[in-house]
Amino acid sequence: MIIQQDQDVWEHAFALNINSELQSVRLVGAAVSTSLSLEDDREGELEIRINFKPGAAKTQGQGLTFETDFNFRVIDEANNLTNLVAVDCRFEAVYQLRPGFQPSEVQISAFHGGNVVFNCWTFFREYVQSSVVRMNLPAPTVPLLRLMPKPPNSVSSKELKPATVVGAQPKRASSRKRSK
Predict the structure, then answer these.
(1) Is 9:163 a contact under the CB 8 Å cutoff?
(2) Are the C-beta atoms of residues 120 and 68 closer than 8 Å to each other?
(3) CATH number of 2-36+46-170: 3.60.20.10, 1.10.10.10, 3.40.50.360, 3.10.420.10?
(4) In degrees rounded to 5, what are phi and psi of residue 138?
(5) 9-26, pLDDT tens digit by residue?
(6) pLDDT tens digits, residue range 32-78?
(7) Residue of 31, 112, 103 whose CA lies nearest to 62
(8) Order of strands, sheet of 20-34, starting from the edge strand that comes earlier in the sequence
(9) For the CA atoms of the chain, what is the radius of gyration?
(10) What string of H, E and C letters represents the secondary structure of the chain?
């Protein structure tokens, strides 16, 4: 998966990035569920869907706190079954700002839509994998995330949202048998 930001958004995020340091990332909310039984030997194609949404951003003195919501779903479109596995979680990332640096709202928004998601991603991946394994199901492959600027002249900046996610729905994967 790739988060691509247009050049001016990328530059605003970079300005905040070079003037901040990640202090902590923590899980602040979660819900997990499965509709699969241990006897279910489902064969065929399952699809993984992953979404994220930047949440609240708070400035506190020389610090910034960001929340980001993540959703992971396993679905079986062929049989019209959704949420075979569902993992919803919220992570909070806390950054310390360089003394004297006051980020603009544009910088905060650009940073939240790319860098914060990227910094929380490894925690999200691990949480999904360990939660699914605790359901006695095989650990899913949650793709790596890359953050990069959009190539010049790809789309006019007036047509762009703050970030575009490429590959938000990973390709289908065959289901695997679970140990019983």
Answers:
(1) yes
(2) yes
(3) 3.10.420.10
(4) -65, 145
(5) 999 999 999 999 999 999
(6) 999 887 677 666 678 999 999 999 999 988 999 999 999 999 998 87
(7) 103
(8) 20-34, 81-97, 63-76, 45-60, 173-174
(9) 18
(10) CEEEECHHHHHHHHHHHCCEEEEEEEEEEEEEEECCCCCCCCCCEEEEEEEEEEEEEEEECCEEEEEEEEEEEEEEHHHCEEEEEEEEEEEEEEEEECCCCCCCHHHHHHHHHHHHHHHHHHHHHHHHHHHHHHCCCCCCCCCCCEEEECCCCCCCHHHCCCCEEECCCCCCEECCCCCC
The whole model's pTM is what? 0.82
Phi, psi of 13 (to 5 degrees): -65, -40
